[in-house]
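Researcher: Predict the fold of (2Fe-2S) ferredoxin domain-containing protein.
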Amino acid sequence: MAKSLAELKAIREKKLNEINLRHGKNGYRVVVGMATCGIAAGARPVMVKLMEEVQAKNLVDVTVAQTGCIGMCKLEPIVEVYDSNDEKVTYVHMTPEKVAKVIEEHLVKGNVVTEYTMTVVDGKVIDTTVKA
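Model: Structure tokens for (2Fe-2S) ferredoxin domain-containing protein follow.
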């Protein structure tokens, strides 16, 4: 049975909202690298867990979205968190298990979870994350 244009637009809007959880612009924007390298490293379960946790905690000031290649394949899965001033924190080697701590500490309390971030020294990425 064919769908009307209005029905198709409603379905599209619903799916976009499910994928991106687009809410307020004054809070955090969380971006997950979903290129082939990220997906191969486990980004899809990380993205799903992020969306579930944001929704479960009713964090209406958090937007979850996906992007293509971030350019640091060996550090995937990568999650970038932008605050309302567009300041970025990059979390690397993310897992679904690490998501809960990032949500609670960073997105709820405003404290960066430094043990999951990368460090840049003299323009070089130094991987100092705790592997889990």
